[in-house]
Amino acid sequence: MPVNIPPLTPEQLLPIAGVALGIAEAGIKKANRKDLLVMVLDEGTQAAGVFTQNRFCAAPVTVAKQHLAHAAICALVVNTGNANAGTGEAGIQHALATCAEAGRLLGCATQQVLPFSTGVIMEPLPVDKIVQGLPAAVANCKADNWFNAAHAIMTTDIVPKAASKQVQIGGKTVTVTGIAKGSGMIRPNMATMLGYVATDAVISQPLLQEMARYAADHSFNRITVDGDTSTNDAFIVLATGKAGHAEITRQDSSEFAQLQQTVTAVAAELAKMIVRDGEGATKFITVQIEAGKDAGECAKVAYAIAHSPLIKTAFFASDPNLGRILAAIGYAGIDDLNVDGIQLYLDDVLVAEKGGRAADYREADGQRVMNQAEITIRVVLNRGSASTTVWTCDFSYDYVKINASYRS
Amino acid sequence: MPVNIPPLTPEQLLPIAGVALGIAEAGIKKANRKDLLVMVLDEGTQAAGVFTQNRFCAAPVTVAKQHLAHAAICALVVNTGNANAGTGEAGIQHALATCAEAGRLLGCATQQVLPFSTGVIMEPLPVDKIVQGLPAAVANCKADNWFNAAHAIMTTDIVPKAASKQVQIGGKTVTVTGIAKGSGMIRPNMATMLGYVATDAVISQPLLQEMARYAADHSFNRITVDGDTSTNDAFIVLATGKAGHAEITRQDSSEFAQLQQTVTAVAAELAKMIVRDGEGATKFITVQIEAGKDAGECAKVAYAIAHSPLIKTAFFASDPNLGRILAAIGYAGIDDLNVDGIQLYLDDVLVAEKGGRAADYREADGQRVMNQAEITIRVVLNRGSASTTVWTCDFSYDYVKINASYRS
To answer: Which residue positions are annotated as catalytic (chains A, B) (predicted)?
Structure first.
């Protein structure tokens, strides 16, 4: 079960002026399941996005990147149940056909629609079902539909993921609302498996793109469930420009900083929800690396710990078998690492220093922290002033169960 | 259960003239368990080894490296139940005390003994129990004791791992016998978690060291169970010089090549046994990457596949959800990879080409191969002439079970 995600209610999610959302049951993989989402954007909305760096990127990712670069976006279409990845040239045609039909229904060009898919890889997209489902999704469009939209993009997710925040900019209230999905194949690199954040802020597209990159780097790009970087990752930020404040045009303005902070906070909340709902997760683990020479080596150590099946299974068992963390630090790839200079903490408990177990460490203290549902692993490298935080979860029987039966 | 390891019998293991092995029950972690091994070497035996590159390397690894560099080796001592890793300065003293006692019993210097430990990390080595157990192990020493030795070094291993081969060199029969242990925390980098190969061949130490490096690179360094590089990996090659042929002194001689081939064959057989007995393994998977630009990029792709929990759980389930393999190829880190040029095979079945599923691929063919206990994943990159093979296993409920309860 997901780790400490409070139940979501429709009222928590604030509408964004200029964004309408509609869902439908297209029967893409299973019957009676909401599996199609359309987001319709008012004219003047700026769109920005970052996408997976997987070389086998999905057809909709290829198409969405092209459309984003060349046209004003009027709609997004998202389907679950099929990733349209590893589908070659036919996949590109299917993604374009989806955009063409959405454009026809909404009165805009194919190039003004961004397509997204998530689900099983290397199976042909049932594009006819999507085309047949689109009219119902468009007819369902309304502003206060974020709650249903969060449900419509789920795959192996147990709970929907959504968040809203507000900030005052230039005397006006600006709202930011986002949804995301993902629970397995999670080790985003530049974006995650479908995250959408919208705001009514007024901002130029180049600055919005900067903000999307920054928010991804401080949220989705800091999480990992299983180390598998998906073929379909995409993180989109939309700004409808309806909030009524003066347009944000400078990256060094306080208004940019305020909005960036709020967008990043929504993205980070969504990203952490993905980890809390990681496949089979029973614990939420924060891996915090401090006093490294640079961010790169901090990340190496953080991911070595966050990806180790031995560490993740020990956390599942609440077993303070913490020597496994030393082993992961040791193989993280820092060649000149002096292990005698490192401190390892579990929450506030000093576990290891001077190359071995700390003199005052008692197993009962380690056990107390291991029994918690939320744990921070803190490694102080004592080599410099860089730091990195990565969020991950444990590794349970249920991860194996979910992924041994995903297609059935 | 281990995948296709035939039962081992004492008769299969040929003695090596100049090597005697003795075991004992020292009660290091559990009572009534063979947990201590002594290997006594005749004068004139050459020893060579490669060790873990984990920066948190175990105290016995540090000591063994020093002793190997500075003295003629007369004995090896191996304990299971405790890794003596992450134990700081006290760990070094414990490893040295073990060597001193073995040396005293055998009439050689502390520096002539190599210590090895395997088991739990970051707990003090019960050196008193080892010292008390050594006389019994020394008294047990005999040449035809490889079978018992293979048992005495096991930890979570289900079956013992050992192999013998013979080769004709300079008109004489040369014998090579080896033992190894390991089943979890297996992703060796320069050696594996305890492998010992002995031969009666006559060869100089520098050439033996070359051979140890080559054999490790083509055996233990090509396997992975869980991607966790151990703190205690060590692979040792011993040559007693009793076979009676002229000493091998040139690396470009046919005698060197013959011996290297035989030593590597024994090492590869042991390494594959470790994967077949990988924690929770139900399948033995060969990952073969061909036609890459260089060996480095082939290895990146091979390990991305071999370490993916999503792929490993699909193989456990015999589910041909093979798009996950494309995803792993895509995130392996080859930036200029053209995915349209790749072919993916499962044994003889062409699964994917031209960026997607092959036109003639039928799920029934994929299912037929997936049902097997031994499967080859073959990826043809079509970028050059380099190739790499890695051996791994699947990821089952039992891996989680074993590692969630390892210390209890």
So the answer is: 192 (nucleophile)
